[in-house]
Amino acid sequence: MVSALLVVVAAVALAAGHGAAFDPNPLQDFCVADTTSKVRVNGVPCKDPAAVVPDDFFFAGVDKPGGGTRSDRYGFTAQSVQIPGLNTLGAAHARVDVAPGGVFPPHYHPRASETAVVLEGAVHFGFVTSYPENRLFAKVLRKGDVFAVPQGLVHFLYNNGTEPAALYATLSSQNPGLVLLGDALFASGLAADLLAKTFLTDEETVQKIGAKFRP
């Protein structure tokens, strides 16, 4: 009987540990982010519920291109959809615009899966599975199409058409994280000989590529 109980306790502990790897479930209807608070927590402190207003659950302007972070190197802009009322609810949203010939280069989100819907234009969108299979799943997406990317897998989008493209992305974490592979490898100061061995090339080639990633 005791042994059986220990097995149950161990199973619950393992399940709890697995669940802790993702955004926790909320303990109230909402926890509107109080961005003025100086309290440091794993997330953002809650605003006084009595002070919450409809605008805390609202964002305007996602129908317009060009807002947010712009990458001239890659040809995209990414606008984070900031909705305070989504605090603690395990979700993040963004509008991504990609110019003709532009890319959102191979990258991954360590803490989130992603679902993207095409608002305008067309893009080549896909992801690659884990080593050793390295299997590619990709499609050309057009307006109204939706594509999903499992958590932590490398993915990309490429606008190889002649018209601008726009997507709306939903991610399954309030803080999904973003790792751009090229930047992580060539803009981080990794040793040239290490990169040369990794890419089966020579250090001179690595130095030339790395120079493009430095300001």
Q: Would you write up a description of this structure?
A:
- The chain has four helices and eleven strands, in the order αβββββββββββααα.
- The longest helix has 18 residues, at 2-19.
- The termini are far apart.
- It is globular.
- 22% of the residues are buried.
- The strands form two sheets. A six-stranded antiparallel beta sheet has the order 1-2-3-10-5-8, with no helix packed on it. Strands 7-6-9-4-11 form a five-stranded antiparallel beta sheet.
- By secondary structure, the protein is α+β, with helices and mostly antiparallel strands.
List keywords for this structure.
215 residues, alpha+beta, six-stranded antiparallel beta sheet, five-stranded antiparallel beta sheet, 4 helices, 11 strands
In whole angstroms, the N-to-C terminal distance is 65 Å
Estimated helix fraction: 10-25%
What share of the residues does DSSP label as strand, in percent? Answer: 25-35%
Q: Can you tell me the overall shape?
A: globular
- The chain-level mean pLDDT equals 88
List the helices and strands and how they pair.
Elements: H1 2-19, E1 69-71, E2 76-80, E3 92-98, E4 103-108, E5 114-120, E6 122-128, E7 136-142, E8 146-149, E9 154-158, E10 165-171, E11 179-180, H2 181-186, H3 192-198, H4 203-213
Helix pairs in contact: 3-4
